[in-house]
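Budget justification aside, the reviewers requested a transparent look at the raw inputs and outputs of the sequence design task funded under Objective 1. We therefore reproduce one unedited record. The lines immediately below are the structure tokens for a 141-residue chain.
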């Protein structure tokens, strides 16, 4: 996990949300909210609109999950996901937003751990995010 918190509180999880479309980024953030599941600490969002800034944030190592829009232009999220999985040591989990359910095979090619189709279904997105983030939360005693 990336950020420390006051004693007794769990650190926040940092979630990068990439899309060239501000509306898509906002849909993701609104769908997930501050805490998509009681098992998880609060989420802190890093909104990104360009590929170079995605790479910079991922290289910095402070991201717990990346949500990448596969429909973004000029750099699609699936191509970026593949590059990150090839180049970033201990790359955090990646979820790609795909244009249609039939594009799931492309998400597999990109090596993303999960894919959710547009339009964004908040329940499906929260379930996928919870599954990917749960292993990144240390067990509490």
């Amino acid at each position: 996990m990336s950020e420390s918190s006051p004693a007794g509180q769990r650190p926040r999880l940092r979630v990068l949300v990439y899309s060239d479309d501000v509306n898509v980024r906002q849909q993701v953030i609104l769908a997930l909210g501050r805490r998509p599941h009681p098992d998880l600490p609060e989420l802190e969002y890093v909104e990104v609109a360009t590929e170079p800034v995605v790479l910079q944030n991922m290289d910095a190592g402070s991201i717990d999950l990346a949500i990448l829009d596969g429909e973004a232009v000029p750099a699609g999220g699936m191509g970026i996901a593949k590059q990150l999985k090839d180049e970033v040591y201990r790359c955090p989990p990646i979820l790609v937003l795909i244009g249609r359910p039939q594009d799931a095979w492309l998400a597999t090619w990109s090596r993303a751990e999960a894919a959710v189709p547009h339009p964004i279904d908040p329940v499906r997105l929260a379930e996928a995010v919870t599954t990917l983030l749960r292993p990144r939360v240390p067990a509490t005693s």
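The domain at 13-136 is CATH 3.40.50.2300 (Rossmann fold). The first strand starts at residue 13 and ends at 18. Computational costs for records of this kind are itemized in the attached budget.
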